[in-house]
């Protein structure tokens, strides 16, 4: 019985793909990386000997790479790119990522690397600060108002003097909040159903001779008490009709603090991070 003849395919018959074109490469053509090393070396006007010296190899090794007889060790590739002033993308003829560094950004990075450690730290802090400011500016707007959590001091000679008893409160900007200057607690049920105990009333300061119109809700100081009442010709009214009208004699000082323009809602209360950003921006503005 005759023996079966087996033919082996020579390794050289296998197709080699040219990575730059995606098509079969010419037989015995050097690998792409070898061709590109030669291309960028010649483009930079570097002799093989000078290039080899930068890498710590022999000129013969570089010649072997460029002819395709061997390839550089993978650990040498960063040094090859640095010596040729190219990237890995250039070396392998690969497409750049979607967000490559611009020429200006590369110049800034090069400049940064030349700085001392102390100067780099200063740049790091400046970038961190500017980034924080930019982030803070993109947050919702915040307003600073004055909040009164307790009764005002008795015998205030001028309604503007009570501000020393206030503490700052921060709220998100809104049409009502933007009009307001103060925040007062609502105590009791005399202003129900519109204002409930525990509500925070937004009060617009009235100045320059401005006054309430009949029927408007105002915040008043009488002696050592504050009131939120409806202003009418015959006195201060409660919305809850079980309470009597407050009337005052000529010897009683009644001060108008301002007009009630709304109530603080849950959506008006900012997140702690937004308040921190707002305060940081204010501190930079004062520098």
Can you give a write-up of this model?
This protein has 287 residues and is α+β, with helices and mostly antiparallel strands. The chain has helices at residues 32-43, 48-55, 59-67, 77-84, 88-91, 103-113, 117-137, 175-179, 272-286, and strands at residues 142-148, 167-172, 182-185, 200-205, 217-222, 225-232, 235-237, 254-263. Strands 2-1-3-4-8-5-6-7 form an eight-stranded mixed beta sheet. Strand 5 and strand 6 form a beta hairpin. The radius of gyration is 40 Å and the shape is rod-shaped.
Q: Which characteristics define this entry?
A:
9 helices, rod-shaped, 287 residues, eight-stranded mixed beta sheet, disordered N terminus, 17% strand, alpha+beta
Put the structure in a nutshell.
With 287 residues, the protein is an alpha+beta fold.
Report the helical percentage. 25-40%
Shape label? rod-shaped
Count of individual beta strands: 8
Task: Extract low-pLDDT stretches.
Answer: 3-20, 151-159
- Spell the H/E element sequence: HHHHHHHEEHEEEEEEH
Distance between the termini: 102 Å
**Content-based structural category:** alpha+beta
Compute the CA-based radius of gyration. 40 Å
The largest beta-sheet arranges its strands as: 2-1-3-4-8-5-6-7
Strand content: 15-25%
Tell me about the largest β-sheet: 8 strands, mixed
């Amino acid at each position: 019985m005759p023996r079966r003849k087996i033919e082996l395919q020579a390794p050289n018959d296998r197709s080699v793909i040219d990575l730059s074109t995606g098509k079969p490469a010419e037989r015995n053509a050097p690998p792409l990386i070898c061709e590109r090393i030669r291309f960028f070396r010649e483009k930079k006007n570097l002799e093989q000997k000078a290039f080899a010296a930068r890498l710590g190899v022999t000129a013969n090794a570089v010649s072997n790479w460029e002819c395709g007889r061997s390839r550089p060790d993978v650990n040498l590739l960063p040094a090859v790119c640095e010596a040729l002033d190219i990237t890995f993308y250039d070396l392998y003829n690969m497409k750049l990522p979607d967000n490559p560094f611009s020429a200006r950004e590369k110049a800034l990075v090069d400049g940064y690397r030349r700085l001392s450690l102390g100067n780099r730290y200063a740049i790091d802090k400046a970038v961190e600060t500017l980034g924080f400011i930019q982030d803070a500016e993109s947050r919702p707007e915040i307003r600073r108002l004055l909040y009164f959590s307790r009764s005002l001091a008795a015998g205030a000679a001028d309604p503007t003097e009570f501000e020393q008893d206030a503490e700052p409160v921060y709220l998100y900007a809104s049409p009502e909040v933007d009009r307001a200057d103060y925040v007062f607690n609502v105590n009791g049920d005399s202003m129900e159903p519109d204002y409930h105990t525990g509500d925070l009333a937004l009060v617009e300061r009235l100045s320059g001779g401005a006054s309430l119109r009949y029927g408007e809700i105002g915040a008043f100081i009488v002696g050592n008490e504050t009131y939120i009442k409806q202003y009418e010709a015959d006195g201060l009214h409660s919305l809850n009709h079980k309470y009597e009208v407050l009337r005052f004699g000529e010897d009683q000082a009644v001060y108008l603090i301002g007009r009630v323009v709304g109530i603080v809602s849950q959506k008006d209360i900012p997140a702690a991070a937004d308040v921190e950003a707002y305060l940081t921006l204010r501190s930079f503005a004062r520098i």
